[in-house]
């Protein structure tokens, strides 16, 4: 069945996941909608999304979409989830330059040569691609890798570095924001642990070399 304006729609967020929807029908303009959930349906084409000109978050994961298209009417789109569809070739010209989070996991297009570099080059504001951070202050982390403790404030600052400016548009969808922040905070802690382990390994290697040089 198509998704269309047959009745009143809720404001701010629309959740129509797992509803056996086969297409996105024409809708009257809904400027107040910021988040649209259409995952786990049977949608084959991205269309008629210009009805939501203020959209910040769009989830179309687990559908039957073959092409990324018709997103030009979404100038504020910050997060796009197209994971586990049927996209074989990705045209980056069809992606809004406003994107900060993009997930194409499970699509054939992610196996293209140079896929990640091409996408990152095309999206100057992108912070996260396929659940992996694009921008991160790794140099600063390595420099401070010898520290055995890090405050919650430092983790929050690094989290904000990964996700700047998204708290305002996503306040309409608190569950999504909480989950996203929890995931990013977990990655911050993992990266810090990894940096600390690498730092300790380098120190051990230096001590071993020093012992060999000083051996009689």
Automatic annotation (TrEMBL):
SUPFAM superfamilies: L domain-like. The keyword Repeat applies. PROSITE patterns: LRR. It is found in: Cell projection, Cilium. It comes from the Eukaryota. Keywords: Cell projection, Cilium, Leucine-rich repeat, Repeat. InterPro entries: Cilia_flagella_integrity (IPR050576), Leu-rich_rpt (IPR001611), LRR_dom_sf (IPR032675). Residues 151-162 have a biased composition (Acidic residues). The keyword Repeat applies. The gene is Lrrc46. Its main location: other. Residues 131-164 are annotated as: Disordered. This is LRC46 protein. Residues 131-140 have a biased composition (Polar residues).
